[in-house]
Here is the input.
Amino acid sequence: MENLVLSQTMVSKVKQSLIDGLTIASGAKSSATYYHGKDEQMKAIQTQILNLYKLSKELPLIIASQKGATGRFVSEVLLNEFKQTLKGGACNIVNPIDWYDNGLSDKAVLSALNNLGENGLPYVLRLFVDLKNARVNNERTRKIVLGFIWGQDNLEFYAMKYRNKIAQILRHTYGIKKTSILLSIAQKQSYTNGLFDSDKELSIANELILKYFNGDSIRAFKLLLFLFKKNGVEYGVNEFPILSEYQKAQTDITNISVIPEEVLLGLISSVKHPQYHNMWSTDIQKEATKAMIRNNVKVTSINQQVRQTKSTAKLGVQKHVEIEKATDFLALYKTGYETGSFTPTLVGAINELAKKKKITGFHYQNIGIILDDSVSMTGHKAESKNTPRAIADFTSKVLTESTKESVLVKTNDETTDIATSFIELLKYENPRKAYDAIFILTDGYENAYDGLTNEVISIYRQETGNQVPIFQISPITGAEMGANVRPLGQGVVTMAINNPIAIQPQISARLLEIDTKRWLENQVLALEASPVKRTKKNYINA
Amino acid sequence: MNTRDFTELLKGCRPIKDSEGNIIVQSIMNMQIVCLTTDKEYSLDTRFANPLTSLIAGNQNYGEINFSNKENKEVILPTQMAVMTKQSAQNHSMIKAGYLAKNASVTYRDAGCVQGSQDGHFRGSSEFRMIPITIREMLFDSVGKNEDYSRTYPAIRKLGQDTNSNTSEYLDKYFSKYEKKLEEFIAHFERPKNLIGTIVLIDGEIVAIDKFPSFTYAEQVWDVMIRDCYGALAVISELKDKSAGQEFTSTYNDLKRNHNTNVVDLLEKALKKTKASITKSVSDKIQELLELTFDAKLDSEGQSTSTYAPKSYILKTEGYVGQVLTENEFNHLVSVVKREKFDPNALREVNELRTKARRQDRFTL
Here is the structure.
């Protein structure tokens, strides 16, 4: 990579935009928050992305490639990038030769896409459906979409689970005419055992499917026929263990174990299913059928099983859940809140998970933590109940695990009284070993009284000369703050997070205030070194 | 006509305090809220249905609202609830609180229009909002008067003037203009557990007191009360550029002059002193109200005539106006506001004189 082309006059503009962008990327979700409707929240995210893009087109993608960026933010960045086409927008940071000709642009897009995929496949599929809704189908987008879908290792499972969505995406990507041609070729293939009628057909198949797909053509075409609901295809147990069981479930849902619960419920709830009248037509039958399915299905993830704790008990199903294997902290917390009991096993699982999620090489090793436990942290009817509280509590545990020494203080009155907790934290400070950072986990809406914490912190700093970094970590962003965090006061660094994983990148981002250009250079070098490709088979130059 | 003492109206209630005995005062700008609680046995949690979800409103004439209670539980209508519908119909507002028996249907003929010249009647609507507290006084004053559907217009015009929202007689214009701000305002206040009532202060003076039937009821109406009702106070304060002031900083600086202790201890002392000072100030203001006695006039329009149903009384005294829904001396709902033009200093002088009078010995030789 050549040197960055970022000019000195641009640096100051870029700096603040990057900091704001990182905060939003780590905290802003698509859902409504305690304070704002979904539309307002989305508008704030989109505005920020457009501002970043206008400044320089690489910025949104650099931020979207950071670990901890929310699915919604990454999705919006990619949608914006695909809309603008490859050559759209100004390239003011990276040399355009590197960006366009040396493949950096591709790597940035694919890194962001992989980052989105880490949030779960539904996030990526939703983005691809958004592309359809936004009528985006340029060559680069098309190749990336096809590379992603046909390159999935577990495509058989995904084809069954997200059948309609994937079909919808492929129909948009190929277009109606090409889809029809591909289906025609696929249907002939099933009779000719993999032989193509003509070179032209082979060429079409290669261009549109086979160069993206890891497997033989017969398998690819059978999957295509399944996705588009073409009948008359046999799916052998050995070759297609999932699809063969799915075919069986279309007439008999008993003893099905590798099809997800929601798919089975979808099948049986159709009046056309042969077992509908015996298994789903009355409330009693429904409950019994749900219980049977819950009992039989073996492919439910541990996290989902944890989330189902309450409903499993309601269905009267005895199912051992290996709770300690859960990786979704929210699922664990929600179980506690929903069942009204944080059992020792549950608390143990949360603590173990916090240990596993600890931030390695954390910048600070002796910290003070203030955890806002006030009522507003339980969330609002517009937001998943207790989500902010769960994020804040788990973050405090992860911070504790990530440091050698820490002191935790919780607000303990009916109101958000951070000032009292701040002083309490200072009283617990080891006089021989001062805190090297203080973290305040709060929504930022203090009310005893508004601005009190700012006064206390200001006086403390002024009187002691202690400039210990104070980070305000909020599980809630505010649309009135441009999807940013409502700050407690001056000199308090704000961060929005939806997962503790977002803390380290954000702290690193603060370092960019010292040397913005160097930080950017490191990010671009990291992108350059990332081993991402559009397909697992070939590199395609669009 | 009979009378009601303030102490009797709020019997069973007490301000919520922190672990150090300070009254918890939540503040934003020049506005403060003190939350009240009561013992669990005085919170009638299972008796009343949610007023925001159990009622269906309709009307056939301007100046009236009919409420149908679809629940098999009684309902206490919150003070001055408005029907702000998307239907092509004139929005209406109640001018008081009310009571509905289980599955009952009640028509209040002393309601008012709040949407200028819009015509049409609504039906089957559950689109409820609360009237901003700053015009509660004018609407209470209209209770029992022989006025028509336009009885609410002067209050809406006043709201428009106070909030620079050019409402004319259209309440929806005010809500449209400040919708986002009011929504954000909810987040500034926290509803404590076991809330039974609130006392609201502006510039250190009590301007409103509300007592609800139960903890559950308070939870159900909290967001709407904060946003629609009390929110107007914040809107007006912001327009007047009012702020909370830096009480802690000045307290700290005062203490610093006389103490030679470490900074953290001094911060703690200053914070405790600040909180104690806020508590004292609020306590003093509440104390002043304890002497109040209201004239209570039975309000019968739309209210149940059953011997066993709660009765509605309109409360008036110098400087304050309100309403109580009471049943066998148990007050389900109390709603009192300070008259805007009333200067509490006048009351202070009266109280001072009254206290002096009490201290005086009876005449003797």
Observations:
- Chain A is about 55% helix and 5% strand.
- The beta strands of chain A are 366-371, 405-410, 437-441, 470-474, 492-496.
- Residues 8-27 of chain A form the longest helix (20 residues).
- The mean pLDDT of chain A is 84.
